[in-house]
Design goal:
3 copies of one chain form a homotrimer. By secondary structure, chain A is an alpha/beta fold. Chain A has 6 helices and 5 strands. The radius of gyration of chain A is 16 Å and the shape is globular. Chains A and B meet through helix 1, helix 3 and strand 5 of A and helix 2, helix 5, helix 6 and strand 5 of B.
Chain lengths: 158, 158, 158
């Protein structure tokens, strides 16, 4: 069973699609896949519900948290975003053409046993606590990622 | 003979340069190189000639196709693009300093046997058909990429 | 002793943080780490002091050099840059929360023996000479990178 790791650094809709399509494809081949969400990539794992007020005592962190999209349905496109119209149009195309959307890809990744790991250092920087992120994910730092990557045959940074 | 794979996700001139310089360098070392063009990266493989009208029945796809640059000579820079002036200036520098340009790098990659693969799922999303892309390339999905990456020693996502 | 390579293509503060956190983590595990700075990533290695006038005879190169940030303290964020306010705020958060900043991470990488390599082709394109970059780094082209990546277990493009 081959191992593969993907660092999801980007919080863009299009790059998230690429990351999840690759992760699901590898899991379907019975590979052991770890997705390590860091920096803006953490926005993919955010609870879509309103954030608890005051969970980060640091004002700047609260500002970053307010700017960072909450969950998969609000991610921008890296190109042609047009204030959020771009991703909405692309979601429509994806649905009409029978391609799996981001929410389905995440659910499928979970079902297939893809490990979803939130980077604790990035959480610290962006002022996000475990209550801000979706349930049933793991928490780890760079040492854990590096251990996984050491014996993986494919390591991508997206 | 070592294997290497490069996912070309970005449609930026500068990232395309990096991808092709690496691919050509590896091919020159007799490595087996596969470049997998996905999402905006497909714009590198587009026919520079005018697109057939109405080839995509979906209006949104036609809009994305209209926005997406057609071929290597129209790619933007990821920084300092300045409405297209940036890439033009950089092309001039590259020419004056005897560095191989993007068109030459693509031709050289072909000559050296670098495999150029267009991602069929991305083509579906962006409404691009085989007639919209340059000749003599391969078409494949994520499973094909993952098979290549499994036994490759270097897998980059650009 | 495992080998790891990281291409630092991006000149963004946040991506630079990711690259250096990974490099330091791997070096702490006694891995042999090579960071290969190319394109905008060269701005991380620039001397923060004023640039010698006229070191690049090419006007366009001088323009790019003037636009490219000089050193770690002036890098933009890939998101929420807000004309330079974003990175300043993020630096404050990082300092207040006891996370190592970019300057410390670079110093630590050096101490731990991480190899810092400037891509000579990118230097040629951007009109940067050795005098424009910090001391005690290596200079090499893509062939050197590919040789390192051949027997490395992890190769990232950031």
């Amino acid at each position: 069973m081959a191992k593969r790791t993907i660092i999801v650094f980007s919080g863009d809709y299009d790059r998230a699609m690429a990351a999840f399509v690759i992760a699901n494809g590898a899991a379907a081949m019975d590979d052991e896949v770890t997705m390590f969400f860091t920096f803006w990539g953490l926005s993919l794992l955010r609870q879509p519900t309103a954030r608890r007020r005051g969970s980060a005592p640091d004002l700047v962190q609260r500002a970053f948290a307010a700017l960072l999209p909450q969950g998969l349905s609000r991610l921008p496109l890296s190109r042609f975003n047009f204030g959020g119209v771009g991703p909405r149009l692309m979601r429509g195309v994806i649905r009409r053409h029978g391609v799996m959307g981001l929410e389905q890809l995440l659910a499928s990744a979970r079902e297939q046993g893809v490990r979803l790991v939130a980077c604790t250092t990035s959480m610290e920087i962006l002022g996000l606590g475990e209550a801000d992120l979706v349930d049933d994910i793991e928490y780890a730092g760079v040492a854990s990622y590096l251990a996984d990557a050491s014996d993986a045959g494919m390591n991508l940074f997206i």
